[in-house]
Amino acid sequence: MLGIRDRVTAETHRQGEIRLAFFSRFLRISVVPWLIAISLAVTTQAQIHFRDVTAQAGIHFTRNNGAFGKKWLPETMGPGCAFIDYDNDGYPDILLINGEDFPGHPSIPRKSATMTMKLYHNNRDGTFTDVTRKAGLAVPMYGLGVAVGDYDNDGFDDIFVSALGQSHLFHNNGNGTFTDVTRSAGLWGPSEFSTSAAWVDYDRDGRLDLVVANYVQWTEQGDLYCTLDGAHKSYCTPESYKGTSVRLWHNLGGGKFEDATQKAGLGDPTSKSLGVAILDYNGDGWPDILIANDTQPNKLYLNKKDGTFEERGVAAGVGFSEDGVARAGMGVDAADYDRSGHSSIIITNFANQMVSLYHNEGNGLFVDEAAQSEIGRDTLVTLGFGCFFFDYDNDGWQDIFVADGHIEDGVERVQKRVTYAEPPHLFRNLGGGKFAEVTTQMGDSFAAPKVARAAAYADIDNDGFLDVLLTTNAGPAHLYHNEGGKNHSLRFKLVGTKSNRDGIGAVVRVTSGSDKQEKMLRSGSSYLAQSELVLTFGLGSQTKADSVEIEWPSGQVDRFSNVNAGQTVRVQEGKGIVGSRAYSASRVYGQTR
User: Fold this and answer.
1) I need a surface site. Which of 345, 485, 486, 511 has the fewest CB within 10 A?
2) Beta bridge pairs of residue 292
3) CA separation (Å) from 129 to 94, 121, 132?
4) Nearest-angstrom CA–CA distance, 509 and 507
5) pLDDT at residue 142 above 50?
6) What value does the CA radius of gyration of the chain take, rounded to a whole number of Å?
7) Residue 426 pairs with which residues in a beta bridge?
């Protein structure tokens, strides 16, 4: 059977061709302006860093991946994480997903191992409190991913946890507790290897539906023997197992769902899916679905506006690499990173494959720009999982974060350049399609090698700058506080009326001076993760937004002007701004802006 050695060996043969392609394209770029831009990026942003506040915040979590020495495939995947403001106090809380021991196989003892998922309440003073049992979420399962959304439009966000075996849906009761409604909602039954998930109102009826990625057909009894060095068992690659389809749950209302996978045209048993992102790639106002597949072509499902989808991944140019290879897609996100008015795509891949940065050409086609940017060179050797676009320095340009970590702890024995624990990547957007890696400037803890998996972002202390949550496999979670930035920002919390209550799928367009930006509010993206359901627009030196336009999933368009920076505004569909909250003047983590 295929093992890590086979995969690494095959990829090693391709490295020379990849490097040649990269450098031949790289040399076409005007080198002097590029170097000047990087120099300016380093100089102007040197004060920004991410400080590890995990211990200070009271986050104590260690992933139990169930490992007991047999190297079963699911051990390599998790854990997921999410930001969720479950009590609507305006401060994001933290949810960390956990695994469990395999039946009859006690896991190798680990110090401070956590046994269920953990919900940490944001105390608004820089600390968090574990409220898992009080909230009713201390439910044993082999959890992997998470998606947050208000599926019944009652004003409180609910939680879907994907799992190996039975996934679970938890209804937010609005009083600090949750109820497991998996059976009553109609989601009970499928026993699958479920990974990332996303809420999406694909038929625009005002109710959130749910798309769930599934990996491969794996069972304890069907686990295969693969080897890294010919002497010891290693984790098998997905080529060794049969694929399986994603699943689409259609929201019927009244707390009920139906399986609409086949009816919607999403049934594809060859997929081996790990990442899910929602985007409107052709700008028709209807949400499309992007699936990152591992060793199978990525899928891009075009919404046909009649409850069905048409697969366009290969035709659009995102199915394969430039040389026609189906790469090992893990995490995924979409954003208009170059202010073209079109959503482009990032997908993380296996070691020696580099990250994919598919630029939306605006004509239904994408072109992978990674090989001609610093992103391609710097991610060639690392293995990426979680990823997202976010504006960490509030300059109005979408930057890129990638969480890295290999799956095999002995990979160094067969390839010296590849390591098990790897540093993350943070790429600052310089404009003009160029990026500069600034990871090492962000602090020693942030840049330290980790076996990272999921990643999400949120403003945890209401200071207008986005912070980062990162998980590691069989290890701790890390919470990084964004410090040292001076640029202005403006944040939007959406409240749908005709649209779903969260406003998921709404597109916000902001103009400040000559700068124009747009963002879609989305569930899912990254890998097994959920970032906060609030949109943050960096305004740089601008102190207000001259104009704001919100296009809701219902078709309603709201417009208003002259909105001051330095606040989170609450916008209700059809009414405009109905409330606001100024940023905190002082930092709860010991610094002031």
Assistant:
1) 486
2) 275
3) 10, 5, 9
4) 7
5) yes
6) 22
7) 401
Could you read off the pLDDT of 502-530 as tens digits, one per residue? 999 999 999 999 999 999 999 999 999 99
Q: What's the first-to-final CA gap in the chain, in angstroms?
A: 56
pLDDT tens-digit map of 316-359: 999 998 888 899 999 999 999 999 999 999 999 999 999 999 99
Q: How far apart are CA 416 and CA 412, in angstroms?
A: 5
Q: Residue 259's CB: how many other CB atoms inside 10 A?
A: 15
Q: Would the pLDDT of 197 be above 50?
A: yes
Query: How much is the average pLDDT of 447-470?
Result: 98
CA distance 335 to 339: 9
Model pTM score: 0.92
Q: Using 50, 70 and 90 to split pLDDT, how confident is the model at 585?
A: confident
DSSP state, 494? Answer: E
Pairing of strands 158-165, 529-530: unpaired
DSSP letter, residue 342 = S
Bridge partners, residue 243, by sequence: 216
Mean pLDDT of 528-547: 98
Measured on CA atoms in the order 198, 537, 281, 367, is the torsion positive or negative?
Answer: negative
Rounded distance between C-alpha atoms, residue 472 and residue 444, angstroms: 17
Other CB atoms within 10 A of residue 449 CB = 14
Q: Which helix (H) or strand (E) holds 309?
A: strand 309-311
List pLDDT tens digits, range 16-65. Answer: 433 434 333 333 333 444 444 444 444 445 589 999 999 999 999 999 99
Phi, psi of 31 (to 5 degrees): -70, -40
CA-to-CA separations, 224 to 9, 142, 272, 408, 414, in angstroms, rounded: 20, 20, 17, 16, 21
Locus of tokens 């740089």: 540
Q: How far is CA 254 from CA 151, 173, 251, 277, 498, in A?
A: 10, 15, 9, 26, 16
Find how far residue 196's CA is from the centre of its chain. 9
Strands 567-572 and 488-495: parallel
Joined tokens for residue 43: 């100089």
Distance, CA of 274 to CA of 384 (rounded, Å): 12
Task: Please say whether the beta carbons of 146 and 528 come within 8 A.
Answer: yes
Q: Taking all residues of the chain, what is their mean pLDDT, rounded to a whole number?
A: 91
- How far is residue 522's CA from residue 500's CA, in Å, rounded to a whole number? 12
Bridge partners of residue 234, in order along the sequence: 226
What distance in Å separates the CA atoms of residue 280 and residue 335, rounded to the nearest whole number?
Answer: 10
Name every residue whose Cβ is closer than 8 Å to that of residue 203 and which is 6 or more positions away in sequence: 209, 250, 307
What is the phi-psi region of residue 73: left when phi exceeds 0, alpha when psi lies from -120 to 50, beta otherwise?
A: alpha
User: Of how many residues is the chain composed?
Assistant: 593
Whether the ω angle into residue 449 lies within 30 degrees of 0, i.e. cis, is: no
